[in-house]
Amino acid sequence: MPRLGLGIYAPGEKNEVSRAVRWALETGYRLIDTASVYQNEEEVGRGMKDSGIQRSEVFITSKVGNDEQGYDQTLRAYDQSLKRLQTDYLDLYLVHWPIRDTRKETWRALETLYNEKRVRAIGVSNYYQPHLEELFAYASVVPAVNQFEQSPFLYRPELLAYCREKHIQPEGYSPLVRGRKESNEVLESIATQYEKSTYQVLIRWGLQQGLVTIPKSTNQKRIQENFDVWDFELSEGDMQQLNALNADVRVADDPMDY
Known about the structure:
- The protein has helices at residues 15-27, 41-51, 71-85, 103-115, 129-136, 157-165, 185-194, 198-208, 220-227, 236-243, and strands at 6-7, 31-33, 59-64, 92-95, 122-125, 145-149, 169-173, 212-214.
- The chain is of the alpha/beta class.
- The chain has one domain (6-250): NADP-dependent oxidoreductase domain (TIM Barrel, Alpha-Beta Barrel).
- It has an eight-stranded parallel beta sheet.
């Protein structure tokens, strides 16, 4: 699984998505993250086709939506995602949110897909430690990945440590906090020091935390800039400064509400 990918949330115009995927693949990205609820899997598939990059070179993640959960429903949802993406397999399929009444049967369906070798890896999204502890009571396959919101402004070191202990790869979404903290003074000071943008510093922070990181953008210049983070490394002191910015700033729901 690539360490840095393109997150595809839900931009207003659908044709933005296919262009963004093509630009990302041309830039060097090889991880594309989408979900059925984003209603843009068709555009992701079109962007991959237009890029000319072979399917085997691209790592594609999608997620089963909240209204698709349950055993039979999840199996159908997976088939529909494949059809929309114009592919015959996913590299990673996730439970999008831990819906109380359906998450057990949904996980059982993902294990079926995995055991039948229809998907290369399965995992969860927005699972905090109580959700994972419950999952381990009935799972026979350890989730390969747990994707959750993570930035210096929503820093969960205990969840990161728990995932590592259980051999689950943590993946952070909304690393750029949807632009809300672009002008933070600490962030700007560190970015100036490295002659990088504040967004590049946020991405680098996630990578150095051991996260797979999936910043979202449909702007070609920003997509390229977000990938230009391999030529510098944040010092331990700067990492600690960024860690100290935690203020429980969320741009998505709190998984504990589920």
